[in-house]
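Is this the right way to post C-alpha cells for a design question? Let me know if I should format differently. Anyway, here goes:
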C-alpha cells in the first residue's frame, strides 16, 4: 500500500513538472519554429486589447516605458526633428530606443516594438549622419545600382542609432512640380521610379530566390524594414496641391502611379504607407477597393499597411471631426497600423468599442496584427529586440560620404555650357588669378540639403550638421594659387573693381517640406535673380541651381554662360566641384521636364502641349580627351574668356531618355 502511494506521488510530481514545462514553452518564442506557427501561437494568446495595441504607433514624445508595457503599443516613431536630445549622438538614440523596448519586453507577452523614422535621404534627422541627394537628384543619375548602395549605407546608419524601420522610399510619380513634395519623387516617368525601387533591397537586403511574392523580407541586423509610400497617386494631385485630389481614370492611375508598387512588393518591401490624397474624391485612407482589394488582394502584399501622420483624422473635413467614423473607415479599408501619433487611448478605446460591438469583425483585426507580427518576425526582432553600439562608427562614415559624393556628381545635370560664339565654359580651370563665388546657397549647408534635414522643414546655415558647402568644395578643389573671393550678394561696383577670371553663382530655393513647399509661381528665392543679373552681365559665369524641382529660369538664361541643375545635393558639396572642374564628367539627365513658364503646367513628356525649355532626359555631357590646359585672358568687350591652348577636344552632346 505504502509503495503504491509513493508511486502515485511520484507520477503526480512528474506530471506537474511536465505541465509546468509545457506552460513555460511558448512556440512563438522558439526561432526553430516556422514563422506561421509562431504567429498562430502568439495570436492565440493575445487579448483583443493587446491586438489593438499592436496596431498603434505613437511618437516618442508621448511614450513611456509604462505606456509601452500597459498598452502593448506596437510601434514608436520620431517625427521630423523629434530627437532624444539636442545634438543627440548615436549612443543617445540607441539608449532611448532600448529604454522604450524594455517597456515592451516587460509586457505580459513581451512583444517587441518596432521604431520608425523618416530616413528619406540618408538618416536625415540625426546630426553628423551622411545626407544623400534627395530623390529627384537620384532620379537624374539613372543609376539603380548606386541607389541600392545608398539604401545599404542608409540602413547601416539607421541601425547605428538603434532604429530598425524607415519610412522610405517615396515612390510617388510627381506630375506637377508645383507640389511641395516633388523632390521626394525620383521622376515624372514611372519607369525611372520603378528602376529606383532598387533602394528597397539596399535597405532590406535581397529577397531569397524562392521567396513568394509579397512576403516581407529583412536580411539581418544590418538591414531595416522599408516603407513604400504614399499609396497611391500622391504625385498626381490637381495643381500639385499637397494632400489634394488626383483626378484620373483607373487606367491612368494604374499605368502611371501603380507600377512602382508592384515592383516594390516583388522586392519584398515590408510596409506600405497610405497617401493623404484622394482619388477622384475618395480619400485614400478610406479606399477599401484599392487597399484591401488591389494592394492586399491583386498584388498579394503580405506586409503591413500603415497610415500617414494623423491620416485617419484627415478622412473627415475638418480633421478629427468624427474620429470614431474615421477609425471605422480606415481600419475597414485595410489599414493595419495607425500613425496616431499622440492620443493612443482615444484610438484604442474607439477601436475596441467597434470590435466588441461587432461593427468591425475580429477577422479584420487579426489580419492586421498577423501582418504586423510577420514583419517583426521577419526582422528578427523577437530574437534581437535590443540594439547595441556595434555600428556607431557607421554614422557619417568616410565610405558613406564618398558614396554620397559620387551620387552628387552623377546627379548634376548640365543644361547650358557656353554661348554660341564663345564655345563651352565647363570644365572650369582650377588655376586662375582670382574667381568670384556668389549667391545665397554657396555657403549654406542647410539650403544645400533641403527639407527633411535635421528638422522637418530643414534648416539654414552651417552649424546644424557636418558636411562640405559648395564654397568649401571650391576652396579645396581650386589651385592653391587661385584667389577665391566670396560675396553672397555682390554689387556691380564690386564686381567691376576686381579682375575676376570668372564667377560661380549658387542660388535657388529655400528649404521646405510637404504643404509648405507648394508653389504656384516656382520662382527663385530672392536675391537670386539680382545676383545673376549683377554677376553674369559683367563676368563669365556658371550658375548652379539648388532646388527641389525645376524653377523659372528662362528670363535669365541669355546672360548665363553655363547652367547646372544641382537639385538638393546634401552634405557632400565636393561632388559639385568634381564635375565643375572636370575631374569627372557631367552625366546626369533631367528626371523631369524643365518648363518655360508655370502657365504650361502640368506638362509631362508625351503631352500634346509639350514645349519645354529643357525636355525630360536632357543633359549635356563634358568629356575631355588628353590634357586640358587653359589660360584666362580678357576679351575685347572687357569680359574674360577661357582660351584653350592645349591640344584638346571637348565634346558635349544631348542625351535623351
Amino acid at each position: 500500500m505504502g509503495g503504491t502511494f509513493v508511486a502515485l506521488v511520484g507520477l503526480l510530481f512528474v506530471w506537474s513538472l511536465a505541465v509546468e514545462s509545457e506552460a513555460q514553452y511558448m512556440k512563438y518564442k522558439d526561432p526553430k519554429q516556422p514563422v506561421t506557427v509562431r504567429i498562430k501561437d502568439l495570436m492565440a494568446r493575445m487579448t483583443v486589447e493587446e491586438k489593438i495595441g499592436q496596431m498603434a504607433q505613437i511618437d516618442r514624445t508621448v511614450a513611456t516605458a509604462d505606456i509601452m508595457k500597459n498598452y502593448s503599443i506596437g510601434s514608436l516613431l520620431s517625427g521630423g526633428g523629434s530627437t532624444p536630445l539636442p545634438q543627440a549622438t548615436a549612443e543617445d538614440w540607441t539608449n532611448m530606443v532600448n529604454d522604450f523596448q524594455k517597456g515592451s519586453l516587460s509586457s505580459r507577452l513581451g512583444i517587441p516594438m518596432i521604431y520608425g523614422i523618416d530616413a528619406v535621404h540618408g538618416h536625415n534627422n540625426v546630426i553628423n549622419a551622411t545626407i544623400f541627394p534627395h530623390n529627384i537628384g537620384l532620379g537624374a543619375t539613372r543609376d539603380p545600382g548606386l541607389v541600392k548602395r545608398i539604401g545599404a549605407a542608409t540602413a547601416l546608419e539607421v541601425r547605428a542609432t538603434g532604429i530598425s524601420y524607415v519610412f522610405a522610399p517615396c515612390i510617388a510619380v510627381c506630375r506637377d512640380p508645383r507640389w511641395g513634395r516633388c523632390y521626394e519623387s525620383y521622376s515624372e516617368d514611372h519607369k525611372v521610379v520603378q528602376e529606383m525601387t532598387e533602394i528597397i533591397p539596399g535597405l532590406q537586403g535581397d529577397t531569397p530566390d524562392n521567396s513568394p511574392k509579397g512576403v516581407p523580407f529583412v536580411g539581418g541586423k544590418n538591414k531595416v524594414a522599408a516603407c513604400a509610400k504614399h499609396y497611391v497617386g500622391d504625385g498626381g494631385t490637381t495643381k500639385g496641391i499637397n494632400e489634394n485630389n488626383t483626378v484620373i481614370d483607373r487606367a491612368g492611375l494604374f499605368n502611371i502611379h501603380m507600377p512602382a508598387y508592384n515592383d516594390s512588393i516583388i522586392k519584398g518591401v515590408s510596409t506600405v504607407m497610405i497617401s493623404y490624397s484622394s482619388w477622384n474624391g475618395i480619400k485614400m485612407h478610406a479606399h477599401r477597393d484599392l487597399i484591401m482589394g488591389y494592394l492586399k488582394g491583386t498584388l498579394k502584399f503580405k506586409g503591413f499597411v500603415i497610415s500617414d501622420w494623423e491620416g485617419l483624422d484627415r478622412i473627415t473635413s475638418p480633421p478629427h471631426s468624427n474620429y470614431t467614423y474615421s477609425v471605422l473607415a480606415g481600419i475597414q479599408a485595410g489599414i493595419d497600423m495607425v500613425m496616431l501619433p499622440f492620443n493612443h487611448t482615444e484610438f484604442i478605446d474607439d477601436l475596441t468599442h467597434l470590435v466588441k460591438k461587432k461593427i468591425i469583425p475580429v477577422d479584420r483585426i487579426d489580419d492586421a496584427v498577423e501582418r504586423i507580427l510577420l514583419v517583426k518576425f521577419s526582422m528578427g526582432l523577437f530574437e534581437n529586440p535590443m540594439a547595441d553600439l556595434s555600428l556607431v562608427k557607421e554614422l557619417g562614415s568616410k565610405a558613406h560620404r564618398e558614396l554620397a559624393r559620387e551620387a552628387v556628381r552623377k546627379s548634376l545635370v548640365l543644361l547650358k555650357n557656353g554661348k554660341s560664339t564663345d564655345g563651352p565654359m565647363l570644365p572650369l580651370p582650377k588655376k586662375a588669378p582670382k574667381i568670384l563665388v556668389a549667391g545665397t546657397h554657396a555657403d549654406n549647408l542647410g539650403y544645400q540639403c533641403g527639407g527633411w534635414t535635421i528638422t522637418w522643414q530643414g534648416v539654414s546655415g552651417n552649424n546644424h550638421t557636418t558636411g562640405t558647402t559648395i564654397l568649401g568644395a571650391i576652396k579645396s578643389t581650386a589651385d592653391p594659387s587661385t584667389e577665391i573671393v566670396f560675396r553672397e550678394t555682390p554689387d556691380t561696383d564690386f564686381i567691376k573693381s576686381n579682375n575676376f577670371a570668372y564667377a560661380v553663382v549658387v542660388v535657388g530655393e529655400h528649404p521646405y517640406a510637404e504643404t509648405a513647399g507648394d508653389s504656384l509661381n516656382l520662382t527663385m528665392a530672392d536675391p537670386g535673380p539680382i545676383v545673376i543679373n549683377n554677376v553674369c552681365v559683367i563676368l563669365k559665369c556658371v550658375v548652379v541651381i539648388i532646388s527641389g524641382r525645376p524653377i523659372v529660369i528662362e528670363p535669365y538664361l541669355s546672360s548665363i554662360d553655363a547652367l547646372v541643375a544641382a537639385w538638393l545635393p546634401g552634405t557632400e558639396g565636393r561632388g559639385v566641384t568634381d564635375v565643375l572642374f572636370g575631374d569627372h564628367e557631367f552625366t546626369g539627365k533631367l528626371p523631369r521636364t524643365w518648363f518655360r513658364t508655370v502657365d504650361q503646367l502640368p506638362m509631362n513628356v508625351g503631352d500634346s502641349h509639350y514645349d519645354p525649355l529643357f525636355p525630360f532626359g536632357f543633359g549635356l555631357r563634358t568629356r575631355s580627351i588628353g590634357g586640358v590646359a587653359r589660360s584666362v585672358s580678357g576679351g575685347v568687350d572687357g569680359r574674360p574668356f577661357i582660351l584653350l591652348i592645349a591640344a584638346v577636344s571637348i565634346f558635349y552632346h544631348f542625351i535623351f531618355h
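Format looks fine. Someone answered above. Worth noting: The mean pLDDT is 93. Residues 141 and 323 are 44 Å apart (CA to CA).
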